[in-house]
Structures are given as structure tokens and as C-alpha cells.
Amino acid sequence: MQMIDGEFRFSASDLMRFKGCRHATTLDLRRIEVGDVRPDEDAEEAALLQEQGDAHELSFLDSLRKGGRDVVEIETDGRPIADCVADTLLAMQAGADVIFQGAMLDGVWGGYSDFLEKVETPSALGEWSYEVVDTKLKRRPDPKHVLQLCLYSDMLTKMQGNPPANAHLELGDGTRFTIRLDDVSAYARRARSSLVSFVDERPDTVPEPVSACALCRWTSHCEAEWERSDSLALVANITRVQRDKLRDAGIDTMTALAQAPAKVQMISTETLDRLRTQARLQTSRRAGGEPRFVLRDQVEGRGFDLLPEPDEGDLFYDIEGDPYYPDGGLEYLHGIWLRKGGGWHFVDFWAHDHDEEARLTADLLDFLSSHMRDHPKAHIYHYANYEIAALRRLTAQHRTREAAMDQLQRERRFVDLHKVVSGSLIASEKGYSIKDLEAFYMPKRDADVATAGASVVAYEKWRKTGDAQILDEIRDYNRTDCISTQLLRDWLIENVRPDGPFPVLGDTPGPAADAGTDEEEEEDRRLRERLRPVGERHGEEVADLLLDLSRFHKREDKPAYWAIFDRLTQESEDLRDDLECIQGLVATGPKWKATARSNEREYRFPEQETKLRAGKSPCVKPALMPESINLVSLDERARTLILRRTTAKGPLPDRLDLIPERPLRNDKLRDAIAAVTDRIIENDPSASAVVDLLTRSMPRLAGRDVGHPLVTADEDLVAGTVAAIAGMDGTALGIQGPPGTGKTYVSAKAIVALVKTGRRVAVSSNSHRAIGNLLKAIADEAQVRGVVCSIAQKVSSEGDGVDHPGVVVVRDNDAPEIAGADVVGATSWHFARYPDAQFDHLVIDEAGQVSLANVVAMSRSSKNIVLVGDPLQLPQPLQGSHPGESGLSSLEYLIGKERTVPPERGIFLPITRRLHDDVCAFISSAVYEGRLDNDAAASAQSIASPDGDDLAGARLVPVEHAGCAQVSPEEIERVREEIELVSGATFTDREGRTRPIGKRDILVVAPFNAQVNALREALGDEVRVGTVDLFQGQEAPVCIVSMTTSDGDEVPRGLEFLLSTNRINVAVSRAKIRARVIASPALLEAPVRTVEQMKLANTLCLLAERGN
Predict the structure, then answer these.
(1) Mean pLDDT score across all residues of the chain
(2) Which pLDDT score is estimated for 449?
(3) Quick one: CA torsion of 798, 799, 803, 805, rounded to 10 degrees?
(4) Segments of 913-1055 assigned E as strands
(5) What angle, 0 to 180 degrees and rounded to 10, lies between the N-to-C axes of helices 1091-1104 and 143-160?
(6) 0.90 exceeded by pTM
(7) What percent of the chain has pLDDT above 70?
(8) Of 66, 111, 810, 987, which one's alpha carbon is 20 to 30 angstroms from that of 353?
(9) Main-chain phi, psi angles of 7, to 5 degrees
């Protein structure tokens, strides 16, 4: 930030600092205008980052020159920026391949791009134009970097006369990240506008702890201010929302919080008690008192229920990593503290490059597994989640010892002492890092390397100098961390934990566990070797993908179990908005005897949406280990259910929660993927369709050349699609259908046309309901066309099948009705059983939600594969973390990096028959790259007020509120006003018929069950209210969306859930004519932490730009 001729000049750095913390901008302004504050000198880590970044930039410049590119360097030292801009424009007009340090200026904004690269897109310059390329040391793009790219790209637009389509980052791992600017530009424009308005208006700010504090130059100033003012920011584990609520109640210091009354509006009693105790302990400690702690009330499954009995073989584990190491960072040291031969010993595993990191991962897991076999009751103690997350990532990234890691987690060998501490006690220290807690059990550290940041700086110094003493110091630091973990565990057991039996966290495995993990590792090694011919024919990416898909279902099972364990340790209230659960069950009466060995009991539960259904076997909470129970019946309207439990498992409790059931057996799917992989290895022609899918080959149609649009511009879309599917020649193609474009209609027509020519069709999807909907449409189409078409649906449970006279529902995989049917509908578990093609086409409905692995498993059943769906609506339910692209849905994989399927690779259904012009225009630009249009009848729809005002369109409705997480009374009131505004208005439908808008013509969507329940109570039964999951597939003239949450700091379930473009797409596109998204303006300026979050926030910003 500079003052030039009395005017401020802003740079990308100013914008990035503003987005990280507005108070930092306040201090920047104060430094320029008043001069009474001074920022910190750059810390060693910040200086290291700058040095490494400069080296990375010069390295990329050198590679461009060596590659023969014509590079023009703009001289910037000591020159006015206007002169540099003039030289940059001359270089652009001359058509230089690359411009280094190109200068740009536009009003109050100015800056220097690392590189401008020439692209073959016409502009005012000629037959070329330029795109921005910046070098960044990080291995992943940061939102701040993208804000910078957007700023430079917008300034570049003024210089060359047209906007660039993309911008790029050369990352520290050697990869190039490309961003489509339309996906983020609205958010960037709003951010720049906010900074300019902030400087003009000068609102008051206060220092608040944020993630940007770590490398901020004002950190010392803010910390001093917190200390001086006794700020609430000093209270450990307090959130921003809690601080705001306390200030609203007149409690604005830690001392005041320690003395606060027992009740504060909008804060639960339990939370307030914890915060008051925290403040009281810290206040005493700051006054010179000794370290103290207070035990929290014991809750089953939390705190000391996670601390097992100590064992002679226990291990204490810590990792050191370097995020700045080239090509994605490096976990370079893993340390373990253990007892051996009667004394304590330290074992260290080192890696100084990625090959060594892979070997380290294998050696470490071998050591851990062997040690656990020798000590069956031992555990591995660590502090916080970093170690587990790193091991999960390393085993997946290097594709080594995943089975061993899985086994250790199944046995619950890892013990996170941070979870034990946070769930069991309140401490007097300023935070809950392990170094904060050391005040209770060990002397203060005074070594040169005493923090994680210092270890990073030290390791980078070693990389430059090779000084062995530096590694010794890092080793001592890691060893001390491991010892500290052991001393913390001992202190908890000896001085804190109440007397009583220790929990048993997991079953002790037998010898078969070792044999199983060893066998799995050997299987992977053999498969990798056998896949070499696939790599030679189709590329290493396909060979790696097949290897990864072979373990897809195992990787899905792992986090499914982890998710059960996580929910066992969560607060009951946290499960209310979890669709996989039912929270807050209370028995309505005593149990009764159901069978000789089981009892049943009825329960009532609070209003909430859930995916659980009768006949399932969810797990129960509270429990120490996953334990299934039979859900006999479920009445969502009455909010009652009946559970059955065997007497051997104990009584049915008065209160409980239901959490997800254990993963279904998927051995049939895994065996099928193995068989398909064998065929691909053998180059079997019968696998041509799945090979085309995996290689993303252009679909092969009989009598047509490959690489041309599958449906030409002059063809009728439906007839052309039917013809393309009929002409498939052992291949795969995708059909992408946005909301209201008639995916089911087109699919039914194509399938009936296939049956008419004597071909058999398999229909599959993730759910029996989705399959049934398509089968019903097929039966109706066959009847209309006079085509004889026998249809069978294979289901798992009674009630899963579609109720239609033209569909026979069976439950046996070998039912004779299946063999004789022209069309068979079933999930992947059925079609994975077929050893050879019994069908001509496999049509996957809702393929944006069906995993690639499941389609591979089903592929033997059919000669051709048709993927129908839309990966930009609700995504596939995915549990695991999968390497490469193995975790993508089938249609998402086929489309690749594009948002919409290219015309030569698949068919995009471009005409919606649901959406009015304005709603369609927003959905098209925000989601579908401008490719979606509507038909004349949809365009003719309207809603007019009694005064004749046009009420159509998609708009954002800003409503100011603060402190709201899952319920917003302000938004509920605005929803009521919106309903009153449109009630009685004149609705004209597609056929030109008119009638008044009634309450049933309105859908109200909210993200959280708590807001849904509050809305239902406020609006009554006439208005349909629910989450977007409930309304997918439905439509109404009016849809009102309540975003609920006040700002992005503490969004329940994360920004990825609340601002999901897929979910907003589905919510807004329920509206035929009028969509209103009610949101706090602060939500549009959410402090995004990833580029994906920025893309999500961009959708709301685009809507805001359409006006009110």
C-alpha cells in the first residue's frame, strides 16, 4: 500500500492481507497516515519463504529461456510504474512469447505480474493475447494467489482489449495450476470493492485471532493489545462467534467472563460454564498462580474413555515435516520413544527426498506392525491429528503399506492425547498445544529448535549447508516432543484420571491379521507388475488407476469405520444435521419381547431429515465399539421408530442416537473389478467399452468417424441421442443433463428404441428409487410406442421396488424373470455378478453419483456403457480418500477437467423445460459455462403481482444478522415476507394457463435441520420446507433458499457444504420462475481457505451481481 500524490495505490499484496485480516489493513493505514506503529521485522520463516520464492521464480525463468522461448524482461528497478506499463504494452504489441515482470496499472490498482504468456486468442493486439502466469512456492494453490491472478487478469484486459479465459500458477512441486477466471472473478471483484470501500469508510476494527496471524507482520502489536486490554481473544478454545455473543452481552474482557452470570443469551449453559471456567483459570494463572486444571463432566465415549490402560510396549510418536520442500513438501523425520531392555530409547526414521520418503513409510509401518504383534495390548500415542493424517496420506500417495495402516486403525492402536485432554479437562494455560500443557509436567524448553516453525527453518538451512549439527538439533527437538507425549500420558493417568477401569479400545488381533496385511501388500506388488502391459498400451495413468480401483472399496470401508468411531466421540447434538444419523432418541415406554432372544422398544426423536430407513442395521451411540441394532420400523411423520436388539447384546437404553451402519459386504464388487482388470491386462476385446471409459477415448459409433460431435447441430437432439446410443460399437459415452432437460425422458426413449430392435438393456444407479423411476418411464414409453418390453427390477428389501404394473419386482439374483426380461434394473451388486455380457447396453442413471469403481465392476455385464446424469448436481456419497482419480464418479471421470461434456465425447442436453429466462441465465453462467438455454414455453412462464410487477428471476436477498450458525430468526422472518409477497400473485404456466400462487407452489430450502424445523414451525404445514436432499427431482414456481449462517468463520459442516455450487444449483433450479436466496452479506466475503472454497463463494457473488 502506497500513498502517491495524495491517493492510495493498492497492490495484490494489500488485497491478500485485507482478506486475511481487516485489522491488518487498519494498521497498514495507520502506519502510512499517522506513523505511530511499526510492523515486526520479517521472521526467519517469512524470510526463508521469500528467498525460496525468488529462487523458484528464477528457476522457471531459466527453464523458459532454455526452452527457446522469446522472453522480454521489463526493467523495474527505480522506475515509475507508468513507464514500466508502457514498456510492457510495447512488448505485448510486438508479440513476445513471454514477458517477465510485466507492469499493469488501472486506477487505484497496480502491480507486476511474474510472467505474461502469449496464447493464440485474438485481441486488440492482433491474432494473439496474453494470460497471467505467477510462480508460487506452495505445492497447492492458495486463494490469495488466485486473487492476485484475477487482479492482474482484469488489468490485462484493459491493455489487450479482451479478457483472458485462464490464469496460471507454476507451483513449488513443478506442476502448473490453471484457473478458469469465470469461476472466481466475481468473488475477486467483490474483494477488491470491499477493500476500496473499507479504506473510504474506515470502519472500526479490533484484533482477532485468525489463521493469517502466523506470518503477519503485525502479530506482536496485536498480542500486546490483547494483553493490555485483557481481551477475550486470550481465552483458550473460544470461537469468534462466542466472542461476539459475549460482547453483545456486555462481556468484553477475560476477567469479565470469569465473573459472568450463569446465563448469557444465545450461548448454551454447558458452553458458558466451560468458557467461564477457562477464563477463571487463565486469569489466576496470568496473575502469577500455579498451573491448575478442572475436570469436565465425564461423557461416555469422550475424554478418558479414549485413554487405554498403559502397556510396557506403548510407543510415543511425532513427525517433523518441511512444507517448502520442492515437489509437494516432505515428511522428513518420524520419531518414536519406547521402552526397550528395561530403559527408554529413541528410534528415528529419516527421509531427504521423496524416494526415501516412500521407503521410510514402508519401513515405519513394518516397524509399527511388528511391534504391535510383539505387544498385543500396546498403543501408539500422539498429540493432535497431524500424525494420523500424514500417515494416511503417505501410504496412499506412495501406494505402500495401506493394508498395514488400515489394520492399525481397525485395532484402534493410535491414541490422540489431544482428544483425551480436550474432552476431559479445562487447563489454566493460554492454549492446548502440547507445549502449553508441558507447564504441568516438564521444564520449559530452551533449545535453539523449540518450535515446529523453527524446525522447518533449521531443516532448510541444513539443505543448503549440509551441517550435520543442524540435523542433531532437529532430532533432539523431535525426541523431546516424543518424550513430552509420554510424560503427558503418564501425568494424565497418575494425576488427572479418576479411578476406575480403563476402556478397551479395540480387539487384539490374531496371527491372521499379519498374514492378511502381508498378503495384501504382495497382491499389490504382483498386480503392479502385471499391469505393465496396460501402461505400455494405454499409459501409466491408466495402469495406476486400475491399481487404485482394485483397492477402492477397501478404502471406502476404512473411513466408513473411521466415521462411525468419530461419531461415537461426537456430542449428541452435533449429529442433528447428519443425514446418516438419527439424533436424540427417547423411549416412549418399556421394552417388549419380540422373539425368544430379542426385545423391541419404541422411541420418539426430534424433527430431522435422515437417510436411514426401516430394515437397516445402524450402529448405536453411546458405545465404545461399533454395535449394530435392527431398525424395525420408522415413521418420519410421527417421528417414532422401533428398534430390536438381541438379549445377548444387553438392554435397550432409555436414550440413544443412531449412527451409520457398518459397510455392506462388497467382495462381489472387488472380485468383479479384479476380473475386469485381468481382461484389460490380457487385451481382451470384450473389455473395449470399459477401456474406452478409462482412457477417455472418443465414443465409437457404427458408420461414423471418431472425433466429431455425436449429435450434429442440424439434428433433432432427442432423435440424435437415440441414434447415437443405438450406434454404439463396444464403447462408452456420457449424457449430461442439467435440471429440467429431460434426462429420464431421453433415456427412456433410447432404451425402448433399443428393445424394439431386439437388444437387452441393463439399468443401474446407486439407489433402488432412482432405478425404479427410470424403469417406470421405460414402461410408460413402451406402452405409448406399442413396443413389447418386459421389465424386471431386482431389489434387496420389500418396499424397495417401483409400484408399476409394467415392472416385475424380484429379490432373488437368479429369479427367472431376470433372465427373460428385455430390461433389468438393479444396483451394482447384481450386475457385478455377470461373468460375460448378457446385455447390449448398460445405462447408468444419476451417473454423477455412481463411482467409477462400481461401473468398472458392472462392465462385464454389457457390451456398451451409457452414463447419464450431471456431476454438477448432488455429488456421489464418498467416504474415503482415494489416490489419483480413482475416487471420482463415473461421469465426472469421463468429462474430466471440463464442467460440461465436450460434444465429441458425449451429449450435453442444452434445453431446460423448467427454468424461466432469468433463472436459466444465472444457472447457465454460474454452473454450465453458458451452454444451458430454455425452450419457448419455459420462457413464457411468469409470475405477476396484483399491480402487474414482474416477479420472475433469480436474486440474492441480503439480510443482516450476526452470531447465527444453524438457525437465523432474521432469515425466517424474511422468508415469511417473501411468501406473503408472492402469495396470490398470478402464475402463468408452460401451457399459458393462469392461477393464483398458493402456499403449495412454494418450496423453502435450508441447509440445516434446525433451520428447517424452525421454518416449519413458523410457516405451518402448507408450505413445503426441507433440505436440498429432500427436494432433488422436485420443482415449483417459487423456491426460497435460506442460507442461515451469519458468516464464513464458523460454518457448521464447513463452507464446502454450505456454499456447495452443486447444492446451490439444485436448490435454485427447483424454481421454475422465481428464486430468492436469502443470505447474510458477510457470507459472500467468507475468508476462504482453498481455491475450491473461493469457487463456491463465487456462485453467490455472481448472484449478488444480478441486483436485488
Answers:
(1) 92
(2) 65
(3) 10
(4) 933-934, 942-944, 953-958, 986-988, 994-996, 1002-1005, 1024-1026, 1036-1042
(5) 50
(6) no
(7) 97
(8) 66
(9) -120, 145
